[in-house]
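An instance follows:
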Amino acid sequence: MKRSSFVLLLAVTFGATAPAWPQANEELIAVRFGMIERINVASGSADLLWSLPIGTPPPARMTVHRDRLALLGSELFQQQSLLTLHPANGSLLIKLIAGVPFNGSAIRALLADAATDALYVSTATDLYTLDPSTGQGTLVGPFTGSPYSWEFVNAMAMASNGDVYAIGRADAAHRYAVYKLQLTTAQLIWIGEIVMPTGSGGRFLDLAIPPTGDWWASFHEIGLIPSLRGLWRITPGSWQATQVRYVDPPHEGLAFLAPTQQASYCTAKTNSLGCAPAISGEGFPSPTASSGYVLRASNVRNQSTGSLTFGISGRAVLPFGGGTNCVAPPRQRTTVAFSGGSPTGVADCSGAWQLDFNTWMSQHYTLPAGTTIQAQWLGRDAGFAPPDNWSLSNALEFVVRP
């Protein structure tokens, strides 16, 4: 049973001023063969995050909606589905899509409007809003405004300033039209062309636009030049396309996911072996996931115990155990963690304390989305005489996500 002793603490701290967070790059997430991957934007290489369960409708296009990954399930018996995946642990919800006629053309694109919280899907020729709770689609209208009578829309994405862009299909010269898209009217405004290598033939499967820099796109070459399949970067304005990496089959969906707001602060106490324990956070802190955000202290004395102390009343610089307590009271301490590392008889800094904070929240009490938390690891250090026989990491401040 969850305890509720943190309620008063929450009530008196919600009005605190939000800290200034360091700039962090958004993560490029991709889907291929039912695998959710994280793309290295320097090399285009991929790391596996999750494999979707067997039987899941094969996912295609991707966007970020309400801090979740939203994907289209590929057409099955002329019906498609909306997949909603939790970025913390990959848990999945599936909703069948209704109200979007198949008409020989499956849904090709998926888009979330961050300003209005609306979700959109499109076939090759029509734009729809989509209710994520019911899967019901409602027609906005047919795409209009293209100078090409044969135009299809294959991909849509929203820039950080709220502008929406769409990419069409190739003409005879292997040019792919780029449009601004008016979501309220489904009007296309032609702004340029992406020129692909001569002889290519295919289509862009999905588009993702970061806050700054080149766009990212996944391209499927039909067969004339298979080496063109994979990840591409598109420079806005010049519309120059540059292949980053050959991927075959290419990714069916791409989206940029905002990073967790977190920043380290304060100073660790150098332990009796001359090492400074360092705190880090990895993942997606969320009260709606039972796992997926690991707080770790590395460079820790081996075969030692420690626990995480945290609070939501702000940062502190308080003398404690020969070092600094960096978390303002009142504070909560979690269960004890064992550092491991080199075996007993060897004294070094090969150990690490770690805790999945989402798991801990799910077992104790929920901290709502938007809560700013300060956390620090501490443990005993037998190399120091009491009362200074403590080991303290630096601290980490982070914001809980939905």
The chain has two domains: 7-16+260-399, 27-257.
